[in-house]
Amino acid sequence: MEIGKRLNPRYIFFGLYIFAFLVYIVVGLQPAEAANYQISAKLIIPTIELNSDVTSLKIENHELKTPDTIVGSYSGAENKTLLIGHSSTVFNNLENVKIGDEIIYDDVKYIVGEREIVEKDDVVMPELLESSEIETIVIMTCAGEDLGMGDATHRLIITAEQI
Question: How far apart are alpha carbons 6 and 114 in whole angstroms?
Fold first, then answer.
């Protein structure tokens, strides 16, 4: 076999094309969401091996836009922070968190004191966000039946107080 036939330009082009495609898959499709947000803290829940960046959120058009792959935080009252994320990504194991579990948010330790699943329409945001005497985090994500478009019939709400 001649050397010229092994280095056929079609094969070289095809090989370079495959290489470029693989680079695109590995680099181009990686979640770049953290780069799109200003990171304000870390959320760590050791029992479910969660370690996520957190970005501060602002209310826009009477709602908080949940980041796709990291946690969003909102604080509108003294000593109370709401942490939200999608149950299909960052909070995919949140249902395994139990009362008494430790949570570390912004380098501060918290203990889970409440865990409940509430119908979506029964969630009263002003109550969730009202101030607290003790530094408290409230973690919320979708639960129940999938309604599509990143929504569900219920909300899993976990409340933890600073140790």
Answer: 68
Buried b / exposed e along 43-78 (16+ C-beta atoms within 10 A): bbbeebebebbbbebeeeeeebebbeebbbbbeeee
Alpha carbon 126 to its chain's center: 22
DSSP state of 47: G
Asked if residues 112 and 97 have their Cβ atoms less than 8 Å apart, the reply is yes
Global pTM value = 0.78
Q: How far apart, in whole angstroms, are the C-alpha atoms of residue 68 and residue 88?
A: 9
Q: Which DSSP symbol is given to 150?
A: T
86 Cβ neighbours under 8 A, 6+ residues apart? 66, 68, 69, 141, 142, 150
* DSSP characters over 97-118: --TT-EEEETTEEEEEEEEEEE
Tell me how far apart the alpha carbons of residues 45 and 51 are, in angstroms, rounded to a whole number.
Answer: 7
DSSP annotation of 143: E
Torsion region of 89: left, alpha or beta (phi above 0 gives left; psi -120 to 50 gives alpha): alpha
**Structure confidence by residue, pLDDT tens digits, 69-118:** 999 999 989 999 999 999 999 999 999 999 999 999 999 999 999 999 99
